[in-house]
């Protein structure tokens, strides 16, 4: 059967992404990032992100079409991130998608950014088994999800009660004097550090915490513990062993993420785990998750790095699935919803 050609637009944070897919086949993925413009501030500045989206959105649409060798009027449906994310940033993508849908007279689908992070795996590993468990770890989110139906039925089992995992990487990098974004630099520093040098706390893993927060995460206590440890060293006039701090911090994050994800699989009898979002690029997370998953007979899927971070292909992949399962399009007046669950 002829599968529809779906163009996806992503603009929820600092990446302007446009992807084109047919079924589970990725035809093009064009991404422009304003990351470098935010670096001096140690985090994403919403106003800068919105302006960068405005500048990049049309060039990325053109680039994606060129790379996929398709003309805009060949596109069968348009999908766009409707939330969650930064309000002003979302509005640029949603506005562009609506203009395209209106001008081309094509159906439009407003879709959820987090579901997109999970759906993108299909472009690499084929149809997602359902139910599947998903660990979504990025700069803005840390969620454990039970995916019953990627197009319409995703249940949250747990989430961070304070900082997101990527946010913790970014904040710890900052206090170690490393650059932004912190994930890749801490990952690299940790490679030559000792991960058992410092015993940093594992958030929400005590018996008492587990009663109320079985599958929730907390990383702000860990960040504070790292800050205290570094300050104590500096007060004593000693050098801070950055690589050991990075490795020990990373081990604490990755230990809790993988432990809870695998426990959730075992408790719910689900044999498939997808890990996605920017932090899924982390090398230690990939190794430990594979170790722990295979010990329990769980099939682990982690998309390649370029698909883990924000991109338009993930939105096109989700849109394609929604179309394939026969859901109707959104009406042209759907809003950008920054706090969408
Ligand atoms: O998914 P993403 O690109 O954007 C959001 O939706 O947030 O994730 C960005 C986050 C940043 O916090 C960044 O530090 C983190 O992903 N990150 C990593 C690595 N690469 C990126 N964290 C740990 N290890 C990495 N290798
Ligand atoms: Zn994201």
From TrEMBL:
Pfam families: TsaD (PF00814). It is an enzyme of class 2 (transferase). It is found in: Cytoplasm. Transmembrane segments: none annotated. Its cofactor is Fe(2+). Its main location: cytoplasm. GO terms for cellular component: cytoplasm. Residues 26-316 form the Gcp-like domain. GO terms for biological process: tRNA threonylcarbamoyladenosine modification. Fe cation binds at residues 113, 117, 310. Substrate binds at residues 136-140, 170, 183, 187, 282. It comes from the Bacteria. CDD domains: ASKHA_NBD_TsaD_bac. Its EC number is 2.3.1.234. Keywords: Acyltransferase, Cytoplasm, Iron, Metal-binding, Transferase, tRNA processing. One of its GO terms (molecular function) is tRNA N(6)-L-threonylcarbamoyladenine synthase activity. It catalyses: L-threonylcarbamoyladenylate + adenosine(37) in tRNA = N(6)-L-threonylcarbamoyladenosine(37) in tRNA + AMP + H(+). Belongs to the KAE1 / TsaD family. PANTHER family: TRNA N6-ADENOSINE THREONYLCARBAMOYLTRANSFERASE (PTHR11735), TRNA N6-ADENOSINE THREONYLCARBAMOYLTRANSFERASE, MITOCHONDRIAL (PTHR11735:SF6). This is tRNA N6-adenosine threonylcarbamoyltransferase.
